[in-house]
Design a protein that fits this description.
The complex is a heterodimer of chains A (about 350) and B (about 625).
Chain A: H1 2-12, H2 33-43, E1 54-58, H3 66-69, E2 73-76, H4 82-92, E3 97-103, H5 104-110, H6 112-121, E4 125-131, H7 166-173, E5 177-182, H8 186-198, E6 203-208, H9 220-223, H10 228-231, E7 232-235, E8 242-243, E9 249-254, E10 257-262, H11 283-291, E11 300-307, H12 313-328, H13 333-338, E12 342-345
Parallel strand pairs in A: 1-2, 1-3, 3-4, 4-6, 5-6, 7-11
Antiparallel strand pairs in A: 5-11, 8-9, 9-10
Helix pairs in contact in A: 2-8, 5-6, 6-7, 7-11
Chain B: E1 4-8, E2 10-18, H1 23-36, E3 40-46, E4 61-69, E5 82-85, H2 88-94, E6 103-107, H3 113-118, E7 135-139, H4 141-148, H5 156-160, H6 163-174, H7 180-189, H8 194-213, E8 219-223, E9 231-237, H9 238-253, E10 257-261, H10 268-274, E11 283-286, H11 290-302, E12 306-311, H12 313-329, E13 333-339, H13 356-361, E14 370-373, H14 377-394, E15 397-403, H15 404-408, E16 410-414, E17 459-461, H16 476-492, E18 508-515, H17 519-531, E19 537-541, E20 543-545, H18 551-556, E21 558-565, H19 570-579, E22 584-587, H20 596-606
The chains are: A alpha/beta (about 350), B alpha/beta (about 625).
């Protein structure tokens, strides 16, 4: 079946344009969402899926307008409920490839419960979290990923709450593909999206996305060429954890503690670095990497933190149905109504 | 000594004990056996929200009432003829409901100082003469049970737990019912626990033979089969019937079921029941919360499932925003609200009809949905089917109202033939030619175009839609057109629902208007008042939004309209505002259904009979 679809997809030869709807895109000029849209449209032909089998589901917020700009099936639902709606779509028809476009407020605040449970169940969904660390559509209140102390319209004296680390949350909740990318690194984002598309199970990509109106420059230290090399650690499977403008720094694990090492200090070399294993069975090291962005002085990782396979909720559910059908035979009206004590009145 | 058998027409028995005493099980076994004999049956379980309240306490009393008759009956009976009380608390809670001269069978082993104190009895009611108006039969139920189980390798506690089967056996003897059906049921139930099987079977037989041999019982009774329409029957509870109705709708339409649901009393049994039907391809998604229950169902509706969500009042509140989304996206979904006493957590295991306003109006914006209400456990089957039919044929959310009384109550169902069930006409849109997501047919219904269909890729959502095209539109005139379209579509449903039929004269002094689960008590109450010369007519409303076409005409032909309902007058308010007439309210909010006598007395009062005063 899958081979047949692959063959059809190859024959059709989609281009990025085939995935663009005819609606004017209405995000603010300079918004990072444009980049996500462009990378999704560019990579969609490589998803190996027929266009009619792709569904984009979203909640509410700037990012949740996403489905309207795709020419696939799309559902712009209500605030926070995208993961739940998407779960229903997938369970109703397992052959659909279901994507979720969501934001930090939509998925981590009002929709937090649906998010963790979709992760826990490993529903075969691909979730793109557009994280701009602010509420944009409601014009500038702090979000669950805003850094502590942030001054916004609803926190004029600075926030007192601690932010979520979305990677830790997704991994802790049971997602089976956990990655991060950035709006200003299109090639990297394309790779993450393409690989998420191929993953069976809940794939989660946090995308650092700039809001030029209400939180401009939130990630410039990570995305701009002067500061990026010192502040970003690119995770690549099988490669040592190296960063820095001259590729002269690395991350070593001292037990469970990450340590920054300098290859020029005469004591360390690249061989001391932890070699990234994105298929690591043990979640501990992935979690250590997820913490780096919270630790002062440490670089922020992008790439795939961890991916592994386990049975999907939808897959096992359908298997159970097939199993019961094979065991009991297909349900009939007679079986439905008469498989209990009955009596006849003449 | 041969004991005489006296034939009676109509009996109501209530089993009562601690919530751990197995009273619900005892009651349902008695029901099954009685129904299989062809007697008409109506049942009413009544239990506390606590699973195991402190043993012997008044708050922990659990009851199960069975009304059985050789006539066609509609209710579980007003007042029991027989009470089986397993402890003093069960006696205390239930004795006030009994008929004068009723029989009370007491488990005297539990009438000790501790249990009497827990039930707030200063003196044992067995000794103070307070039960002199009743036919009290003291039985050492617990002791006799343990004696019967002598030699079995069970703990004293396990043996004590079998006493409900001793009581059941005794009642089988008293009402001339065979014990074989329950013996067989026990075999299936305890296949893997032979000791427990043996114990329960022995207890059942011991109870039966105790009636046969002991001198205390001089008379036994028999209730002959009722003259019911021909057919093959089974027993159904309301919750069970809802589940069966949906599966039947799925078979009839060829559309697979998706249920998104979160457990809640008294609706959980629908989720449990539907989760059994995997061989019918039924998908039951036990969601992380009520909102996910409906949101997942809406996603499944988009993808082409017969989408359902089941809940009770608090859950309906949580689903409110999502129902609005289903209205806006015009997707078919059935929301079952098994009403319970509210507001807030309220009375989870008790019945009420107070969610009517919420079902009708509980959404922001102009968000009309179809609302229908079931009238009896069996009608839950047909109502579920009809709700599913309207939802998919009109691409709309439908709220089906039942309540705790229907959910747990049971009655025999004449199993309909498959080909006699209503047809469900629905097809997914396949043809891309001329397709627009919000292009409407003659009933104003938009096409159901599901993902996976080539050429029909489109986007929907909660933002206002452009008429016909379905794209986002903030245009002022368009919004008004769409609001009107959504309203007009619901009104079109009126063309497919039947007209109301009056029971009784077509005009006169008094019309009784009922809706939902009060049907049975009201019907019997009208009959009784009528027999005393107080005549009234009856209409029962199943379709609440929209109403049947002829409701307004019917109302005009009566001087007075009486609306009994288990709320503070919600249907009365809707009738007044819709038809600009006044009505007489009769409201009960005690978490208990109407009694036949209450309806009868009210009718007599409204018709000037002064209720015999």
């Amino acid at each position: 079946m899958e081979n047949k679809i692959d063959q059809l997809v190859t024959e059709i030869k989609y281009t990025a344009k085939d995935f663009s709807s005819d609606i004017d895109v209405k995000w603010c000029p300079g918004c990072g969402d444009y980049s996500v849209l462009a990378q999704v449209q560019r990579t969609s032909p490589d998803f190996g899926e027929l266009k009619e089998n792709i569904v984009w589901v979203s909640g509410i917020g700037c990012s949740s307008r996403f489905p309207y700009y795709m020419s696939t099936y799309g559902f712009h639902s209500i605030h926070g409920r995208a993961a739940a709606v998407a779960t229903g779509v997938k369970l109703a028809n397992k052959k659909l490839q279901v994507w979720v476009a969501t934001g930090d407020g939509d998925m981590l605040s009002i929709g937090g419960n649906h998010f963790i449970h979709a992760c826990r169940k490993n529903v075969d969904l691909k979730i793109l979290l557009f994280n701009n660390r602010i509420y944009g559509l409601t014009k500038g209140q702090y979000s669950p990923t805003s850094e502590k102390g942030k001054v916004t319209k609803s926190s004029p004296y600075g926030t007192v709450d601690f932010p979520f680390n979305a990677i830790k949350l997704a991994d802790g909740a049971g997602a089976t593909f956990i990655a991060r990318s950035m709006d200003r690194d299109p090639k990297h984002m394309q790779e993450m999206i393409t690989r998420a598309a191929k993953h069976k199970g809940l794939a989660f990509i946090e995308i650092y996305q700039n809001c030029p109106i209400f939180n401009d420059g939130a990630y410039f230290h990570l995305t701009e060429k002067e500061t990026k090399p010192e502040n970003v650690l690119v995770l690549e499977h099988g490669k040592p954890l190296v960063f820095g403008a001259n590729k002269n720094k690395g991350i070593k694990l001292d037990g469970i503690n990450p340590v920054i090492i300098d290859f020029n200090d005469g004591k360390h070399s690249i061989n001391d670095c932890r070699v990234h294993d994105e298929f690591d069975d043990n979640p501990t090291r992935g979690f250590i990497l997820a913490r780096l962005s919270d630790l002062p002085g440490f670089p922020t990782p992008i790439g795939i933190f961890r991916q592994f396979t386990k049975p999907t909720y939808d897959g096992d559910y359908m298997k159970q149905i097939e199993h019961i059908k094979a065991e009991k035979g297909e349900g009939t009206y007679k079986k439905l109504m008469f498989s209990t004590s009955t009596w006849e009145v003449n | 000594m041969a004991k005489q058998i006296q034939i009676v027409e109509d009996v109501t028995v209530r089993f009562a004990g601690d919530s751990g005493d197995g009273m619900q099980l005892t009651g349902s076994q008695f029901t099954d056996t009685t129904a299989i004999l062809g007697t008409d049956v109506g049942t009413l379980p009544d239990f506390p929200a606590e699973i195991r309240a402190p043993a012997g306490s008044l708050g922990g009393v659990s009851g199960f009432q069975i009304h059985f008759s050789s006539n066609d009956i509609q209710t579980p009976g007003d007042s029991p003829d027989v009470l089986v009380a397993m402890n003093p608390a069960a006696l205390k809670v239930n004795v006030k409901d009994l008929k004068p001269n009723a029989t009370i069978i007491l488990n005297t082993n539990s009438f000790d100082v501790k249990n009497l104190k827990l039930a707030n009895y200063a003196v044992s009611p067995l000794e103070d003469g307070s039960l002199s108006g009743y036919n009290v039969i003291p039985v050492e139920l617990a002791k006799l049970t343990v004696t019967a189980l002598d030699g079995l390798a069970l703990s004293p506690k396990e043996k004590d737990k079998c006493k409900n089967f001793f009581a059941l056996g005794l009642m089988y003897w008293m009402y001339n019912r065979p014990i074989e059906i329950t013996l067989k049921w026990l075999e299936t139930k305890f296949k893997k626990k032979p000791e427990i099987l043996e114990a329960n079977q022995r207890a059942l037989k011991a109870g039966y033979y105790y009636g046969e041999t002991t001198e205390i019982f001089t008379t036994r009774y028999d209730v002959k089969p009722a003259k019911l329409p021909k057919g093959v029957y089974r027993n159904v509870s309301g919750n069970e019937a809802v589940a069966l109705g949906f599966v039947a709708a799925s078979l009839r339409s060829g559309i697979p079921i998706f249920l998104g649901s979160y457990p809640i009393t008294p609706a959980s049994e629908i989720l449990q029941e539907l989760s059994k039907y995997k061989d019918f391809g039924v998908v039951t998604f036990q969601a992380e919360d009520e909102i996910s229950g409906i949101a997942s169902a809406i996603g499944a509706a988009f993808a082409g499932s017969l989408a359902l969500t089941t809940t009770s009042g608090p859950g309906l509140s949580l689903k409110t925003e999502a129902i609005g989304l289903a209205v806006m996206t015009e997707l078919p979904i059935v929301i079952v609200d098994v009403q319970r006493g509210g507001p807030s957590t309220g009375l989870p295991t008790k019945t009420e009809q107070a969610d009517l306003f919420q079902a009708m109006y509980g959404r922001h914006g102009e968000a009309p949905v179809v609302v229908i209400a079931a009238k009896s456990p069996v009608d839950c089957f047909y109502s579920a089917m009809e709700a599913a039919k309207i939802a998919v044929e009109f691409m709309t959310p439908v709220i089906l109202l039942t309540d705790g009384y229907l959910a747990f109550g049971s009655e025999p169902m004449n199993i309909p033939k498959f080909e006699d069930l209503p047809k469900i006409n629905v097809e997914y849109r396949k043809d891309p030619e001329g397709f627009q997501p919000y292009l409407r047919n003659e009933n104003l219904v938009r096409p159901w175009a599901i993902p996976g269909t080539p050429g029909l890729e489109h986007r929907i959502g909660g933002l206002e839609k452009k008429d016909v095209y379905g794209s986002i539109s903030y245009d002022a005139d368009n919004h008004e057109i769409m609001v009107n379209n959504r309203q007009a579509k619901i009104e079109k449903v009126q063309t497919v629902i039947p007209e109301l039929e009056i029971e009784g004269d077509k005009s006169g002094e008094l019309l009784i208007l009922s809706w939902g689960s009060t049907y049975g008590a009201i019907k019997e109450g009208i009959k009784k008042a009528n027999a005393k010369g107080f005549k009234s007519s009856h209409i029962h409303i199943k379709h609440i939004n929209p109403f049947s076409k002829n409701l307004g005409e019917i109302l005009k032909n009566f001087n007075k309209v009486l609306i009994p309902e288990m709320n503070k007058g919600q249907m009365a308010t809707i009738i007044r505002s819709t038809f600009l007439i006044d009505v007489v309210q009769f409201n009960k909010v005690k978490g208990q259904p109407f009694k036949v006598a209450e309806i009868e007395n009210k009718i007599i009062e409204v018709l000037g009979g002064n209720n015999g005063k």
